[in-house]
User: Which sequence fits this backbone?
């Protein structure tokens, strides 16, 4: 149903825009370029905004729930809500779809970490790009191996703010410093945007039931 409505919107949009540019006597090639750019802005910018920059958790969740048939999006929802079978199904579909070594490594690492298979994580992270994500999972492995000093060193070199805060929160939690861990968790959620914000919030809320989103305050 979503796709039928979307196709109808695209069809009507193209017809209306073509009538407008024709009325303005714009060259056909230029008219095509203008309509293509406008179509991209109308159809894909809202999606990119939600995926990368939105901070409204309810809106992000609604977006994810409307795209359950797309594993690229549904994996985030399944991970955030710990739906084991759907995490596995989405990962399998993504591994079938994306054959590049770096994408394969990222999805395998995410799934292995979800399943607490640290040895597999250690094997796969060496193929992950970009470096920030590789170091993010390296720090997690160090924490799992009780090597907190090395984890701190890796975290210090990670340039992404939400990653630093999230990892430091985990370290504080392991040291039974609940108040500081909660503060850092809230900071990580605040620093993140889009789908990553949704996953972080849902994950931390299980560890800190008192953690609240802006909408819930």
Assistant:
């Amino acid at each position: 149903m979503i796709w039928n409505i979307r196709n109808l919107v695209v069809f009507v949009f193209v017809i209306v825009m073509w009538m407008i540019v024709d009325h303005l006597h714009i060259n056909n090639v230029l008219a095509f370029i203008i309509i293509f750019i406008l179509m991209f802005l109308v159809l894909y910018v809202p999606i990119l905004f939600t995926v990368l920059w939105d901070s409204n958790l309810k809106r992000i969740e609604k977006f994810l729930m409307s795209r359950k048939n797309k594993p690229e999006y549904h994996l985030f929802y399944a991970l955030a809500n710990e739906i084991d079978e759907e995490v596995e199904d989405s990962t399998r579909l993504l591994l079938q779809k994306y054959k590049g070594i770096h994408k394969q490594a990222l999805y395998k690492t995410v799934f292995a970490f979800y399943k607490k298979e640290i040895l597999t994580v250690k094997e796969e992270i060496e193929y992950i790009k970009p470096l920030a994500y590789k170091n993010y999972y390296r720090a997690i492995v160090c924490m799992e191996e009780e090597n907190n000093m090395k984890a701190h060193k890796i975290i210090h070199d990670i340039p992404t703010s939400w990653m630093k805060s999230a990892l430091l929160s985990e370290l504080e939690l392991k040291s039974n410093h609940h108040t500081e861990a909660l503060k850092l968790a809230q900071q990580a959620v605040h620093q993140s945007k889009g789908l990553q914000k949704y996953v972080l919030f849902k994950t931390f809320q299980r560890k800190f039931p008192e953690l609240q989103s802006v909408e819930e305050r």
Q: What stands out?
A: DSSP finds twelve helices and no strands in the chain. The longest helix spans residues 28-52.
